[in-house]
Design brief:
Radius of gyration: 16 Å
Number of helices: 7
Bound molecules: guanosine-5'-monophosphate
Strand order of the largest sheet: 2-7-1-8-9
Number of strands: 9
Order of helices and strands: EHEEEHEEHEHEHHEH
Shape: globular
Strand content: 15-25%
Largest sheet: 5 strands, parallel
């Protein structure tokens, strides 16, 4: 019988470079399935529906809540984000490791529901570095950046609820650390 893949939940305050780290990790397409979330947030420039997110109206999102289609969902900075259960199960049963990149409230819902899940936190070297990165990225106005830094500050206090923490100071080191953690998860005796 084929061994099931591992369910790996990754959280990071925005601007921690998690997108860049995961971009490198996910180059191994046969090994990993990256879960594409549903969201009510408007697409940013360059974001493609079905690739970065599936962009839904509030109404469609609420219909999926009512259908109990979500493994988890949460409200974050005035928008809804959620992970559908069905594709996750499908890929785990095909032996692929599934990576969910979600915020803390959703991760804690999975902690309750799925004892088989593993939790990795990606942290910035400091909040000041995080603010500089968000300003440098230039995708949000300053008031939204301040809101996200505040959110990050409270999210950083949640890191003790995770099994592993990768600090993104140097990108190559962070990618290597992340892959070491995944390997340890795969080798773990259940
Ligand atoms: P952004 O708007 O910057 O793309 O994402 C905002 C936050 O929502 C990030 O922390 C991201 O990890 C989180 N997020 C993305 N997809 C999901 C999801 O399906 N569920 C939950 N709970 N959070 C998500």
């Amino acid at each position: 019988m084929m061994e099931r893949g591992k369910l790996i939940v990754v959280s990071a305050p925005s601007g921690c470079g998690k997108g860049t780290i995961l971009g490198r990790v996910l180059e191994d397409k046969a090994r990993f399935y990256y879960s594409v979330s549903e969201t009510t947030r408007k697409p940013r420039e360059g974001e493609i529906d079905g690739v970065h997110y599936r962009f839904l109206t509030q109404e469609d999102f609420k219909t999926k809540i009512a259908e109990d289609a979500f493994l988890e969902y949460a409200q974050y900075c005035d928008n809804f984000y959620g992970t559908l259960s069905a594709p996750i199960e499908e890929h785990l049963s095909q032996g692929q490791d599934v990576i969910l990149e979600i915020e803390v409230q959703g991760a804690m819902q999975i902690r309750e529901k799925r004892p088989d899940a593993h939790f990795i936190f990606i942290a910035p070297p400091s909040l000041e570095t995080l603010r500089e990165r968000l300003v440098g990225r230039g995708t949000e106005p300053l008031d939204v950046i301040e809101k996200r830094v505040k959110q990050a500050e409270s999210e950083l206090t949640c890191r003790s609820a995770y099994d592993y923490c990768v600090v993104n100071d140097d990108l190559d080191t962070a990618v290597a650390d992340f892959l070491s953690v995944v390997r340890a998860i795969e080798l773990r005796v259940e």
